[in-house]
Amino acid sequence: MPAFTEKDLSPDPLQLFAKWFAKAKQTETKNPGYDHTACSLGTASKNGAPSVRIVLLKSFDPNGFVFFTNYQSRKGRELVENPKAALCFFWPSLGRQVRVEGVIAKVSAEESDAYFSSRPRGSQIGAIASAQSRPLSNRKDLIHSVKMLEKKFGEDPIPRPANWGGFRLAPSKIEFWQSQASRLHDRFLYSKKSGKWTSERLYP
After folding, report:
1. Domains of the chain and CATH, by start
2. Per-residue pLDDT tens over the stretch 124-139
3. Which among 173, 33, 193, 202 is positioned nearest to 98, based on CA atoms?
4. How far is CA 4 from the centre of its chain?
5. Residue 184 CB: number of other CB atoms within 10 A?
6. 183 is a catalytic site residue
7. Please, what is the average pLDDT of the chain?
């Protein structure tokens, strides 16, 4: 891997993330089944019990990283109980990883409405039919719910359910990792204090 040094850093880590994200879009999508927007989301309950799963990043800007889910799912409930979370992106085609830590808040209803309306119709219906993370006695019940909803809405627009929407993670730390030989990886950590970003190199 090419060296990843101080001269490659940006004053704002979101600018560097945008460069790495764009490059990952070029390389990861060449591999069937790979998705450069996929990232691990780590949450914890109010008692500190951790859990992790894969989500898809839908947008990012200086205000943070946005993903969508059922608010009544396990991750949705945990993010409300304990609004601190972490994201981890790994792009094997580039030998790069990005870790993000910060606080969570729901996006506006308008943002959630806009994204929901852009989803495929099947995904819209699925979001309503699925009581995400809750026990399901058999798959037939889920398929039946989907068919009933398809009949109910017909060709009409499907409204976003109130229990489904977006979260935004406002970052306080962002770490960039690039693989190197002999596990002597390059790592740089950005930390935000008093509204300003500082960076430092970490041991691998």
Report:
1. 6-108+166-202 (2.30.110.10)
2. 999 999 989 888 999 9
3. 173
4. 25
5. 9
6. yes
7. 96
Which residue is listed with tokens 């790495």? 20
Which residues, in sequence order, are CB contacts of 10 under 8 Å at separation 6+?
Answer: 16, 19
| DSSP H helix total and E strand total for the chain | 5, 9
Q: How far apart are CA 158 and CA 47, in angstroms?
A: 37
Q: Which of 53, 96, 160, 183 is catalytic?
A: 183
Q: How far apart are CA 59 and CA 115, in angstroms?
A: 10
**In this structure, what is the dihedral angle of CA atoms 131, 136, 141, 145, given to the nearest 10 degrees?**
0
DSSP 8-state class, residue 29: T
- Write the Ramachandran bin of 21: left for phi over 0, alpha for psi from -120 to 50, otherwise beta: alpha
Other Cβ atoms less than 10 A from the Cβ of 77: the count is 16
Q: What is the pLDDT of residues 48-93, one digit of tens each?
A: 999 999 999 999 999 999 999 999 999 999 999 999 999 999 999 9
User: 170-189, pLDDT tens digit by residue?
Assistant: 999 999 999 999 999 999 99
Phi, psi of 2 (to 5 degrees): -65, 155
